[in-house]
Amino acid sequence: MAELTAFTDLVDYPMYVVTAAANGERAGCLVGFASQCSIDPPRYAVWLSRANRTYRVARHATHLGVHLLAKEHAEVARLFGSETGDSIDKFRHVAWHPRHGDTPVLREACAWFVGRVGGHIDGGDHVGFLLDPVEASPPAPGRPPLVMFRDVVHLSPGHPA
C-alpha cells in the first residue's frame, strides 16, 4: 500500500462540525473529510469515523447538519473535536436550535446547511454520508477566515483510536 503522508501533509482544508439527531439522541463531531460532490443536483458528502459516537447516531438520522466555523469560534471546534459525546453532552456548552429531522444547528456557525441523508458509502474506517441539502443559512457577511486543518491538527480526537 502506498504511503500518502507526503501528499496529505501538504493539504490544508476547512474543518466542519457535523451534527445529527436520531432516536432521542444528539451527536456532533469535527470532520475534515467533506466535500461538495455534485453541482446539479447539489450534493455534499461527509465522512464520519466508525469509532465516533456521531457515526453511531448519524447512521439512524434522516438529516445531518454541516457547519463552518470562523476562526473566532475555534473553541467550538475544540469542543466537537476533542470531547466525546460518550462522556459529555456537547450541546449543553453551545447555543443551537433544531431544524429538519431535529438536526441541531449551531448558532455560532458562520455558515451551515442541513442535508437529507441520501445514501452511505463504505470508505474503510470512515463512512460517507451523501447529503441532499434541504436548508441553508443565509450568506455570511464577507468571507470570514475559517477554522482550517492547520488550526486543529494538535487536537487529540475525543473518540477512541
From TrEMBL:
Please name the InterPro entries in this protein's record: Flavin_Rdtase-like_dom, NADH-dep_flavin_reductase, Split_barrel_FMN-bd
Q: Which Pfam families match?
A: Flavin_Reduct
Q: What Gene3D superfamilies does its record include?
A: Electron Transport, Fmn-binding Protein, Chain A
**SMART domains named among the record's database cross-references:** Flavin_Reduct
Which intervals hold domain Flavin reductase like? 10-155
Q: Which UniProt key words apply to this protein?
A: Oxidoreductase
Instruction: Please name the SUPFAM superfamilies in this protein's record.
Output: FMN-binding split barrel
Superkingdom of source: Bacteria
Q: What is this protein called?
A: Flavin reductase family protein
**Species assigned in the record:** Streptomyces ficellus
